[in-house]
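Chapter summary example.
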Amino acid sequence: TMVKVKTWELRTKNKGALLKQLDELKTELAQLRVAKVTGGAPSKLAKIKSVRKGVARVLTVVNQKQKEQLRQYYKKRSLKKYKPLDLRAKKTRAMRRALSESESNIKTLRQQKKLAHFPLRKH
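The structure predicted for these 123 residues follows.
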């Protein structure tokens, strides 16, 4: 392919078409590398970079689509606890380990009795 791979065009394609294009780009890259070894034209050598970038673009779009589909799948399932690690909220390590709202509000039996028998005084 002579035309530079455009990301917005890739996003409109389905997975099959993307994988087909990826295969074409990889075969083209292999041919260009052969040309490099056999001392091909300078135009071919210059093309290697754009083809490599094209391969990277296609792979990026494929991976983004796959991740988005996984997000949709887990949104439907609404399994909060057992989501794959890369789909969970990043936040910070401390925030991930902090008690949840419900966990922090739990009171022991002793605390419950104390609050019932000795409520905070209203002045």
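To summarize the output: The mean pLDDT is 91.
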